[in-house]
Amino acid sequence: MRVTVFFVLIIINLTLQSTILRSVSVFGISPDTQILIIVSYAILRGDMEGAVFGFFAGLIRDMMFCTVIGEYALLGLLTGFLAGKPFRNFFRENDFLPLFLAGVLMIMHECGYYFLTYLLQGETDFFYYFHRIILPETAYSVILAIPVYRLIHFINGKVEEREKRMRKLF
Q1: By the 8 A CB rule, do 134 and 110 touch?
Q2: Are 128 and 148 in contact, with CB atoms under 8 Å apart?
Q3: What percent of the chain has pLDDT over 90?
Q4: pTM of the predicted protein model
Q5: CA angle 103, 52, 91 (to 5 degrees)
Q6: 68 in a domain, yes or no?
Q7: Alpha helices, DSSP H only, in 24-144?
Q8: If pLDDT is split at 50, 70 and 90, which confidence band does 87 have?
């Protein structure tokens, strides 16, 4: 059940991200809600599930939009693992943690993407990329961090309730 629900969520997110969110871009920058979903899921479910979720979310994104398969899968795996590692026992209704963690991990994710995509091709103007792409995209995405976290928290709660009911049947 959990796999199906979150697979559908990934597909819906990638569809929205490639259509609607592109139309609300500011200066050519649109928010990356996939990272927000990976971070939210990892905070709620832990490092290992976060890493697996991030890997498959990135792999689906690679297969749908990229010419090289594996970049977003690797970055999603690392993002999910790092987001879930230190925060196993915290107050889940806390909104500051997902906001802060999304900002930090968004910067790390985008720096990793720069390294895998541009630096290995010989483009070494990191500060231009950081100033023009990473910071605006992070700021734009962090605005959506709390609503996305609350949505994932709600969906996760419903899935956990259903799993508890299903376990009682057996």
Answers
A1: yes
A2: no
A3: 31
A4: 0.88
A5: 50
A6: yes
A7: 33-45, 47-65, 71-84, 96-117, 126-129, 135-143
A8: low
**Which whole-number Å values give the CA distances from 67 to 5, 30, 63, 91, in the listed order?**
27, 20, 8, 40
Domain of 59?
Answer: 2-12+32-169
Q: Kindly state whether residue 80 falls inside one of the protein's structural domains.
A: yes
Please name which of 152, 56, 75 lies closest in space to residue 113, comparing C-alpha atoms.
75
CA–CA dist 166, 33 (Å, integer): 31
pLDDT at 79 over 80: yes
H/E stretch holding 67: none
CB-CB contact of 60 with 51 (8 Å): no
Tokens of 90: 């915290």
pLDDT tens per residue, range 125-152: 889 889 888 899 899 889 889 999 999 9
Residue type (1 letter), 21: L
Asked whether residue 91 carries a pLDDT value surpassing 80, the answer given is: no
Q: Is residue 25 part of a domain?
A: no
Task: Please check whether residue 112 lies inside any domain of the structure.
Answer: yes
**Total tally of structural domains belonging to the chain:** 1
